[in-house]
Amino acid sequence: MKRLVRISLIIIFAIFISVPTYNVYAASDAQTLAELRRDLAAYKAQKSENTKKQNATKAEINSAKNSVSNKQVEIEANQKKVNDAIQESEQLEKEIANGKKELAELVQNYQIASGDNIYLEYIFKATSFEDLVYRYAVMEQIMNYQESLISTWKDKIEYNKQLKVDLEAREVTLNQQIKDLAKEIDNLNDELEDYFDISLSVEQDIKSTQELITTYEKMGCKENQNLQECIGELGDTRLIRPLNKGVITSLWGYRTHPTTGVANTFHNGIDIGGNSVGTSVYSAANGMVGKIIYKASCGGNQVYIYHNINGKKYTTVYMHLNSINVKLGQIVKNSSVIGTVGGQKGTGDTCTTGAHLHFGTGSGWYGSDYTSSSTWKAKSINPATLVSFPGKGKYFYSRNG
Fold first, then answer.
1. The model's pTM
2. Secondary element (H or E) of residue 359
3. Cβ 293 vs Cβ 302: under 8 Å
4. Which residues contact 226 (CB under 8 A, 6 or more apart)?
5. Which of 17, 179, 205, 274 is deepest in the core (most CB within 10 A)?
6. Helices 33-109, 129-219: inter-axial angle, 10-degree rounding
7. Residue-wise pLDDT tens digits, 28-86
């Protein structure tokens, strides 16, 4: 029995998410305790690096948000300038109208007929020739000033018109820049979410790797001993359904993602509905728990079990669990309850639309025979080829097909 328990202890968790633009630290394929400790140190270094990237991305997001705020303040200030310019122009129009009226009155009263000495009443009141010249000059200056004032007002109105055009054009530019910044912020938030998911996965790897090291130490494994020498095999003859009843709601293969709406998304499992939250989920065969993930942002609580079916290695995965009833390295039978159905809303699991079990199968032991999530996807096997499941939309009422 001790030999059987050791099967999963070689398994180090693989990062379950795949982010093309970042280096995701893969699960370990360590063969000795010394190599396992090396990988643990590497996980911790990855965590530190990822934290730095998170902080840098947060700083970029804050900078972009500040830029948006500054541009919005500028838009509001420019809108006020436009409103002030409009009001000023309206007032100047009134001043021009009044100025023209005053000038017309001056011209009407200040007439000099060609060849005649006909003056304004003002000029007629001159007491001497010098006074007359003075009065004439005064009247001329008043008229020139009035005309100059009207001209200045007109220029100011034209300036305000152009100011309005320029500021409106600037507002269009600023709004476009705000839209571009909004897209940039969205992209940065996506990056931050990726880093956050990576961080959670690395945390899980650190925890599980430390658990494996502790278990190996308790078993008395030597530092440079090949860990395969410390493990045995627990076999079975077939895989059976992980639930007593249910309905197939989504098949293995490409589909439109139910929560993101992205077309041609590969679904490496079968979704089984028709059960309430808390319904018992069983291991599909005898095996050992090789990997446990808690509260992943996509997939929720997850259990991976390693099997040897007629001499061939398989991994089964159970996702969206409401509770997990097993521990890492635990030997399980095909009658063992490994967890309960979850997937309900409000759990933080963004990849589920309601209570159901995602059941997946793959060849080999994911995390031991291979470590990358892309290889896990490549080795994914349609569960319907290994387990007797009915077609989509159809119910089953027993674990045996």
1. 0.51
2. strand 357-363
3. yes
4. 31, 32
5. 205
6. 170
7. 456 778 887 888 888 888 888 888 888 988 898 899 889 999 989 988 998 888 888 88
